[in-house]
Amino acid sequence: MIEIPSDLHKDLVPLAFLLGNWVGAGVYDFPGAEKCNFGQEASFTHDGRDFLAYESRTWVLDNDGNKVRPLESEAGFWRIDGDRKVTVTMTRDDGVVEIWYGELADKKPQIELATDAVARTASAVPYSGGKRLYGYVKSDLMWVGEKQTPEVELRPYMSAHLKKVVTPEDVERWAKALPEDMPDDGIAFFK
After folding, report:
1. CA separation (Å) from 137 to 18, 48, 67?
2. Residues 55, 64 contacting (CB under 8 angstroms)
3. pTM, whole model, 2 decimals?
4. Which H, E and C letters describe 3-50, residue by residue?
5. Beta-strand runs (E) in 62-128
6. 26, 58, 122, 174: least surrounded by Cβ within 10 Å?
7. What are the pLDDT digits (tens) for 88-101?
8. 3-state secondary structure of 129
9. Phi/psi of residue 162, nearest 5 degrees
């Protein structure tokens, strides 16, 4: 369910599907690195201003789904204008800072982004750009990332399927919002 908080900046309503805490897993595969399954925690939050704050942490998973070690972390800010153009500024733990531009698809919760600028610290791994596609599908957040370096052409390297974290407070709020004349099908238990 997509909720639009009353204090969400009006410009961000088209991005409301991103809001919340998300968890899930995916696959990492890029030349020169070990292919692995990874876990991910991501959050999109707001404070009433005209941007969403974004944070993501991923970690390598073993064959039993246990955390082995950190993989990648990133944080940034997402904005959208009246023409559905999306701008993302992002900082990554490997010493890379990126500016992404893209667009929210027409009539569906899907965003396609591409890097416009990349800055790297002297110790950062080689990286020259990327693309990402985010989509809200049946209440889940799915994404795929593409990456290029001076040695490797643009290619998919990460993808994940994330589920929204639902808190007991969310369930209580939703139950209280149900109409009073609902038939007693067990929902009354939550009120």
Report:
1. 11, 26, 26
2. no
3. 0.86
4. CCCCCCCHHHHHHHHHCEEEEEEEEECCCCCCCEEEEEEEEEECCCCC
5. 67-80, 85-92, 96-104, 110-120
6. 122
7. 999 999 999 999 99
8. strand
9. -115, 145
